[in-house]
Structure formats: structure tokens, C-alpha cells
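Q: What would this chain look like folded?
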Amino acid sequence: MKLTNLARLVVLTIPAFGLFATTASIAQAESKIGYVDLQRALNETEDGRRAKAQLKTVFDRKQKELDERSNALKAKIEDLNKKRTLLPEETRLKKEAELSEEMKEVQETYMRHQKDLGEQEQKATGVILERMQRIISEIAVSEDIALVLDKNQAGIIFGRTEFDLTAQLIRRYNALKPDQKGAAPAAAPAAPKKK
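A: My prediction, written as C-alpha cells:
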């Protein structure tokens, strides 16, 4: 079957028109992408600085307690080492067992403090991050941004500054009135009583 020139033109034009229409729709579907540095935003918002200061106070208090216990244990070990040759074997073994148990308790206290601090940090920053996510969503909707990435989590090595929404996020977050923020970030709990 032979195709006339007009038929050839139609056969060639239809796929070309489809390709053009597809390219045009892809161009229309292109969306903006933005990124934020959530770590910087946490460090630069008023609530973030307040939460970090509270956590540092708790950390310093717990670190001081650990240092005191560790130094006392160290002194006992040094004392035992000086008297090692003078003590009867049974007494020396008993003291070594006591010091070993005390060392284990200090290590357990350290692990418990680390876990507590991690939970407190997660709780304090979690509230702030929830608020930030709401603000990021508002920014994305108002500026027709299809995707917002966390600079640190997404592995962004370079991004043009016009796509960085961090300063805008910090400014909007700090501008929130207390009643717009919802519940205030949780304050650090009081130190537990020493045994």
C-alpha cells in the first residue's frame, strides 16, 4: 500500500505533535524545590536556644555527679594499689570485688544518664520540629514549592541560596505568638535524688 504525500505528512506530524505536547506538559509540571537546615533552625530559634540551654544545664549537673563518683572511685583504686602488698589476700580480694561493683554502678549510671538526656532532647526538640514542619508546609504551599528537603539529612552538598528556606523558617517561627506555638517545649525535669 502506497502512502500519498499528505498521508506521510499526517503520519509524521501526529507523533511529532504528541512529543511536543508531552514536552510542554513536562515543562508545566516542573516544580520548585527548596531546602532547610533544620539543625541551624533549631539552634537559632528562641525556643531551640532555650531548650538547648536547659539540656546543657541538666547535662552539666549529671556530668558533675559522674565526675565526683568517678574521682572517688579512682582515689579508692589508687589507695588499694598502694596498700596491695600490705593487705591480706582475703581483704584485698574483697576490696577489689567492692571496687569492681562500684565501677559497674558508675558505668550503669553513665549509660542511664546518656539515655535520659537523649530522651529529653528528643522530647524538647520534637515539639519544636513539629511546629517547624507546619511552617515549612505553609511556606511550600504559599510559594508553590513541590518538595522541601532537610539539608543535613538529604546529603545536599550545594544548593543555591534562593532555594534555602532556613532564614524564612527561623523568622516565621520566632514571629509566632505563644498561643500560636501550642504547648511550650518541655522543661528539663528536676534532678533525681542521690541514693
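The chain is about 70% helix and 5% strand.
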